[in-house]
Amino acid sequence: MSLDVSPTLLERAESGDITDAEFVECVRTSLPYAWEVVSRVAGELQSSDASVEFTDNVVPPPDEISRGQLLRALASDAIRGGLERHFGVKLAFQNCHRVAAFPLSAVGGDTYTRYISPRAQLLNQSPELRNC
């Protein structure tokens, strides 16, 4: 299971829409490692000067539980979208730990396009990441 959904939140979801804030809080408490990585790269981007085009995480997760949290968060359109809206960034994901935050204005630009390109994906591979 990806998220630990409280009975109250599940009941609210069953009876109608929930807010982004409620959803993001569920993500934060359910996937603490993924939350930490995304909030760190988003915070670094937002606190940097205008010359910084993106920030990314290059440190592998400390264990398989953490790796699974990151994969679940970024593989889910709903979770990823909720995180992007909450932090006001565009997330990009290259492997089991390489998560980048871009300003929304960078989407479609050269740096963003290079980062998400098939070439960049291939160049970011190594034997030790094969099964991550």
Structural description of this entry:
With 132 residues, the protein is mainly alpha-helical. The chain has one domain. Helices cover 54% and strands 10% of the residues. It is built from seven helices and three strands; from the N terminus they run αααβααββαα. The chain has helices at residues 7-15, 20-30, 32-47, 64-75, 77-87, 110-115, 118-123, and strands at residues 55-57, 89-93, 99-103. Strands 1-3-2 form a three-stranded antiparallel beta sheet. Helix 2 crosses helix 3 (32-47) and helix 3 (32-47) crosses helix 4. The longest helix is centred in the N-terminal third of the chain and has 16 residues, at 32-47. The radius of gyration is 16 Å and the shape is globular. The model has no long low-confidence stretch (mean pLDDT 89). It holds the Pfam family KH_NucS_shadow.
Tag the structure with descriptive keywords.
132 residues, 7 helices
| Low-confidence residue ranges | none
User: Any idea what the shape is?
Assistant: globular
Give the count of structural domains: 1
Overall radius of gyration: 16 Å
Major sheet: size, sense and barrel closure? 3 strands, antiparallel
> Which oligomeric state applies?
single chain
The arrangement of helices and strands along the chain is HHHEHHEEHH
Structure classification: mainly alpha
Q: Between the first and last Cα atoms, what is the distance in angstroms? A: 19 Å
Query: Total number of helical segments?
Result: 7
Tally of strands: 3
Mean pLDDT value: 89
Strand % is 5-15%
Q: What percent of residues adopt helix (DSSP H or I)?
A: 40-55%
Strand order of the largest sheet: 1-3-2
Pfam families: KH_NucS_shadow
